[in-house]
Structures are given as C-alpha cells and as structure tokens.
Amino acid sequence: MNGGSFGQRGSYGSLPCYGKLSTIARKQSSKMPPASSRDKERVLLVVCRCLGRRRVAMLLLVALALLVFIWGSLTVSKETTSPIVRPMDSIHFDNSDILSHPSVACRSRANSILDHPCHKFALPPPPPSGGRRFGPRPCPVCYISAEQARASIPCSSSASPVLRNLTYVVDENPIKIESHGGSEFGGYPSLKQRNESSDIQEAMTVHCGFVKGNRPGRQTGFDIDEADLMKLEEFHEVIVASAIFGNYDIIQQPKHVSEAARKNVPFYMFIDEETETYLKNSSALDSNMRIGLWRIIVVHNIPYTDARRNGKVPKLLLHRLLPNVRYSIWIDGKLQLVVDPYQVLERFLWQQNASFAISRHYHRFDVFEEAEANKAAGKCDNSSIDYQIEFYKKEGLSPYSKAKLPITSDVPEGCVIIREHIPITNLFTCLWFNEVDRFTARDQLSFSTVRDKIMAKVDWSINMFLDCERRNFVIQAYHKDLLDHMPPPVAHVIRHPPPLHRDSSAGRNPSKNSRRGRDRRSGSKQHRKAAAGNREKQTFL
Predict the structure, then answer these.
(1) Strand, coil or helix: what is 346?
(2) Within 13 Å and on the Cβ side, how many CA atoms surround 130?
(3) More confident: 487 or 450
(4) What confidence tens digit (pLDDT) does each residue in 484-495 have?
(5) Is 217 left (phi over 0), alpha (psi -120 to 50) or beta?
C-alpha cells in the first residue's frame, strides 16, 4: 500500500522524486553504499517528499535572482569609482573599498597611497591663452566624499622627528635688550635665543607669544573671556579658524559643508572690539555670539597697533589658543571656504602623509622678488623690508633655483594653512611667529628661512601645493576698505526704440496701410503748396 503513494501528485501538481530515488537505491542495493551516503539520501528523500518539483524550481529561480542582484550591485559599486565633475571643477570619488566602514572613526597610516582613487589623477593642460593673459584661477582637484574623508582620519598622530616635548617661555617682566628684539607680547627673544631655537632637541623651550602668564588669553595680551577660553580648550579632531581685526574684512559664510562637519567641526572667528562694535550695530551678531557657522571669539587688550600683525597671533599660534585640537584649517578673513573641511584635510594632509600644507604663490617663487613686489605695492615700510632681507642674506639666504628641488618654492600664498598639531609643526609656527614679531608682518618673507633651518636639522617637509588648487576650495573677496571706496555699480540703461503708433486700421493689409500713408503724406504736401500759392496771390493783390 505504501508503494501506491509514489504515484500521487504533490500539492503543486508535480510528481514526487521519491520514487525515482528509491528505484535507483534498489538497483544499487548490492553495492551497499556507506552509512553517510544513506543518511544523505534519506535527507533528500524527506526534502523531495515535502517539496514538489515546482517548489524546487521556484527556489532555484529565487537563488538565481539573488545571484543576478548581487552581481549587479558589484557592477554598480565598480562604476562609482569613476570621477564625477562637481561645481568648482572639483573631482570627487565615491570608492568605499579603500576606506574603513563609516562607523570606524579612523584609519591606519599604513594604507598605501597607491591604492587611493585619486592616485592617478592628473591636472588637465591649461587652456590655450589665445593671445590673452589669464590671471590666477582655480583648477580641478580630486576629492573623495565628505563621509569617506571623515572615516579616513588617521588613528595615530604623525611622527614628530627628534622633538617630543615642546614648552614655552613664561616671563612676567620681559625686557627689550636689542633694537630689533620683537615685542612685549613675544617676550623680546635675543638673537642668541633665536639661534638656539633652531637647534632641534628632544625637549625644547622656546618663545611663542603669550609670555605673560601661564595660560594664553588670560592677562597675557590678546585676552579672551573665560567662557570662550573654556570652549577653546575642548577636544576636537578638526577645527576651522579665521580672524578679522580693525574691521578689515566682511565675514564670509562657508558653503558645501557636510552635516557631519556642521555637527563636529567648530568654526572660530577671532575679532577685536572694533569689529565687534560694527557687527553689533549691523545686527549681524546674535545673542549666542554666532554669525552663521562662525562662533565669534572677541579678543581684548590686543598686543599690536597694526591689525594685520594682530591677525598673525591666531594664524600662527593657533595651537596655543586651542591646545586640545588634532587638525586645523586656517583661512584669512577675506576668504570663503567652499569645500567640506574633511575633504580638504584628506586631500592635502592625510592623502599625502603630511603634517603641514600651504600653497605656493601663484607667480613668485623667490624671496627677493617677493620683497620687491611688497615694496612696489606699499605693503610695508621699504627700509624695514630691506633690513630684513639683508639680515637673511647674511645668514645665507640665496635666490631660489632648481638646485633647491624637491622644494618647489620659497614663497607661500599664506592665506590658508592646513596643519596637524604635533610638536614639530608647533615649533615651526612658533619660530615663524617670532620672525614676524621681530621683523615685518609680511610672513611670506620669513617663511623659507624658518622652514630651511628646521629641514636642515630633521627629516621633515611641508606640502606646498599649487595655488590653483587652493583657489578650488576657497574664494577670495575684497577687503572691506576697498569695498567701501568702490563706486556704486553703474546701472545699465537699456534704450528701447519708440513704440509704433497704430491706428484703427491695424491688422489690415500692410500694403494698403502703407499706400494710404503715402497718399496722406502727399496730400499734406499738396495742401501746403496750395496754401502758399494763395498767400502769394494775396500779396500781389
């Protein structure tokens, strides 16, 4: 009776495969397969009994559909590695294969640069001039997405060659003993102390501003309110900073900032009391001391009378004002950031395994040429510039040449600084500030002198990227004084032709209208002639 059940159809109208398998098993019974084989056959028999042929076919179709879906997903993910042209002629990659999962907060520095999707990116050739002279302009830059850039933050800090512990001079009563010894805020470092600060040791103590007091911003000159100081001492992976002193610029709001950056990256704008008064009178500053993304930090008791020199304090000594920050992007007050901070850091620091990045000057590479250009533009007193250059010449400064390669330039475009806060970069900006404090405020003149002295002692370098790349992620505006003196824009007057006078005959045959117009004009002429003849007759009479 049990054998009759083999012929029954399953629930989906298909014959069970149990009968065939049992027949095959009987034919091969003489061979007596192993116990494991018999167990497998029993499992198959149970499956075939429970499932009809149609169910098995449907399962196979579902499995095939899943395979097709997975293959298609892999194809799409490979296609996303191709560059996508975005505004500002930037190129973005969305390749998640080289980066950690977004939930991972950092990546290992051991990742090879050769595996990066931007590794093979090359700048396109410049457009033909066609006889016209083009000024500086942005060029394409390869970025990965903001989310992937944030996931690529290095887990560990970059190595600081030789220098491990950097502390700063504290002097409550600094005394000026040399004619060009700097300022009270800088502590009047002597030439001997200046020379010793270039001898890199494992532990060093150098002048770095804020000499009066143990904590920058508290009765040191460049004083900051206590609530703001507590905010500045918080830990952050990344910050963006800028400054406006003397009401010299108009605050520019960043654009294209990701939600992650808006939430995790503070934007600090340092201003003096003069700029604060202007912002309050213009109703731009809200009750939370914010203007858009910028958190406004008011500085009291500024150390210099020159607004541009005051701006060098947060620009070069940012690590002293924000001691618990890993990475910072500095932009001058006249600039507008138009690329996400994580993308900028990934492109110019993390991707290059660099700890300090700054763009080259778009036109000049030589300090001597830069000095002459500053004098011609009236940027500073000519005698002060000459004194500084002559001093550097005695120390060995020479014109830039190809012999300095791989150093590509001696003159930076210093309005943007991208850096990691580690002892060697902190030392570099301290010594750079000391030169600005001692000589002129034109930091382009002293940059190469400080850089070359450190590079002569330790294995450290600076990523000097192209100026057109800098112009890709920041837009430069005019200084406020130039805008105030600019004439208002002239309204373009569009002169329209006088309207045609249409009579009731409008819409009729134009040939008839023109004919009638000619007749009317000829009739008026005849009428004038007849009137003139009548007047002549009257005179003769």
Answers:
(1) helix
(2) 2
(3) 450
(4) 544 555 545 455
(5) left
- Token match 């005695």: residue? 394
Query: Could you tell me the two tokens for 288?
Result: 């939370």
Q: Cβ contacts of residue 189 below 8 Å, gap of 6+?
A: 169, 181, 182, 197, 207, 434, 438
Q: What is the CA radius of gyration of the chain?
A: 39
Position 136 confidence tier, pLDDT thresholds 50, 70, 90: confident
Task: Give the integer Cα–Cα distance in Å for 332 and 419.
Answer: 15
* Pair 146, 170: CB distance under 8 Å: no
For the segment 374-378, the average pLDDT, to the nearest whole number, is 95
Q: Which residues pair with 360 in a beta bridge?
A: 412
pTM of the model: 0.73
Rounded to whole angstroms, the Cα distance separating 125 from 192 reads 49
Mean pLDDT score of the chain: 80
Instruction: Provide the residue ranges of all domains of the chain, joining segments of one domain with +.
Output: 163-483
**CA distance linking residue 500 with residue 517, whole number of Å:** 14
User: Is the Cβ–Cβ distance between 359 and 351 less than 8 Å?
Assistant: no
Cis peptide leading into residue 406 (ω within 30°): yes
What is the C-alpha to C-alpha distance for residues 185 and 223, in angstroms, rounded to an integer?
11
